[in-house]
Amino acid sequence: MTQEDLSRLGRNYILTGQYTEIYFPSKGVRYIAINDNVDTINGESELAPFLNILNEMHARQTSKKVKAAMHTRFANGAHYGAYAPLGYVKDPDKKGHLLIDPETRWIVEKIFDLAVHGRGAASITRILVEEKVPTPGWLNYERYGTFANIYAGAPAEKAYAWTIAQVKSILKEETYIGHSVHNKQSNISFKNKKKVRKPQEEWYRVENTHEAIISEEVFQKVQELIASRRRKRRNGTTQIFAGLIKCADCGWSLAYGENKQNKNPYGYYHCSKNGQGLRQCSMHYIRYDVLYAYVLARLQYWSMLAQKDEDKLLKRLLNVSDRERNSAKKKQAAELKKAEKRKAEVDGLFAKMYEDWSAGRITEYNFNMLSEKYQNEQKELETKIRQLHEMMEAAVQTAADAEKWIALMKQYVNPVELTAELLNTLIEKITVHEAVKGEDGSREQEVEIYYRFIGKID
User: How many domains does the chain have?
Assistant: First the structure.
């Protein structure tokens, strides 16, 4: 491996030294830094550690200079983001200055108007989605072509797929009252790029740097409403199912809630796509204690089998895996056949449309409009076909996977309680279906547990 000098390998003297003195020799790699006269074939260089320290000092000084320049811009109230915030555009005549965007300011005004009249973030989000108000990301894509990986060929509803986090961010943004606030977060150091939030006393807050869209009075009223609506802190207990429990229909995580109206309060889960106020999915309500008891019972059952007869359990798991795999394979094969058939139809329609345009049977306007439609559908179908092929290939289950899971299960002998560690070790996800009424009027609900390495076996 040859480079111009040691700084090309790295400017962290500890890691650079680890590579040149330990890693490269252990792997039989010859490393040469031409300008620094370093060649590992000649053994360790006595000068290299000092050069690495100097390289790190250079990086440290450069980082300080960049920060100083940025802080100067912060102190002047200049805008430095890649894009202007929603409702504004960058001033073409003055770098770092914002101008009100007459085409999008109404969106900001609408959000604050809803908030000042008592609407919460979830309610505002639902209204924006229902009224098909374009998101900031979609507007940037339309104007500048950015975020093409997200929006190109995406369904139409992606253009107004607002989230509660976006609405909350806008409602707290002082940009809309004409102020600039910077340095809210920064990297831990020039070596560690992890972002950390800074205390307010270290923020750069410059007032009246540009024209306001929202009045100070309205903004402060909204902040008071947000503060009064904020939930009290919980007692610090960890939600052991966090990240594991999903909606069987939409795939979103289930959110945790508490019913404190009854004499005996209890916890429950519900689909977050319903609970966020978007109402794009049904409730999928399940009580915490019911879910807890069911999952614990299933883990106790499999733990007992793992301790009692490992070979018998292995055979059973492989048989179940075969049934699941064959069932999934049939379903995926049918979807693949349907997608490939439709793609062939679209390809044929596109070819015929081109012939009609060449022969003058359709106008160029209609050709361009239909062309975009068919091309988008072609991309969607190609993606779906590729994903189905990948899913069918990944569905192959091996005995090694089952053995791994049994080995994990044997670590937990007859568990008497659930913990986040136990659940995340043994389970990949838990899907909850919508409850239905049985023939006798009782409430019935399907819960599926997908275990690590082996998937669904119950």
Answer: 3
Q: In this structure, are 216 and 195 located in the same domain?
A: yes
Residue 63: inside a domain, yes or no?
A: yes
- Mark whether 31 and 102 lie in a shared domain: no
Please give the angle made by the CA atoms of 274, 277 and 280, to the nearest 5 degrees. 45
Number of neighbouring beta carbons within 10 Å of residue 182: 19
- Within 10 angstroms of residue 390's Cβ, the number of other Cβ atoms is 10
* Contact present, 19 and 40 (Cβ < 8 Å): no
Write out pLDDT tens, residues 183-197: 666 666 555 556 566
Q: Are 250 and 280 in contact (CB under 8 A)?
A: yes
CA distance 111 to 127: 10
Read off the pLDDT of residues 195-244 as tens digits, 9 standing for 90 and up: 566 777 777 788 888 899 999 989 988 887 776 554 444 544 557 888 78
Residue 437: beta bridge partners? Answer: 443
283 three-class SS: coil
Q: What is each CA distance from 99 to 5, 89, 158, in whole angstroms?
A: 46, 5, 27
Range of the domain at 319: 302-456
- Is residue 173 located within the same domain as residue 60? no
Same domain, 343 and 429: yes
Residue 247 belongs to some domain of the structure: no
**Is there a domain that residue 240 lies in?**
no
CA nearest neighbour of 114 among 105, 125, 103: 125
Angle, CA 159 vertex, CA 153 and CA 161 arms, to 5°: 120
**Which 8-state DSSP code applies to residue 413?**
-
3-state secondary structure of 261: coil
d(CA 6, CA 37): 10
Q: Which two tokens stand for residue 226?
A: 């947000």
Contacts of 281 (CB under 8 A, 6+ apart): 247, 249, 250, 252, 271, 273, 274
Output the CA torsion sign for 426, 429, 434, 439.
Answer: negative
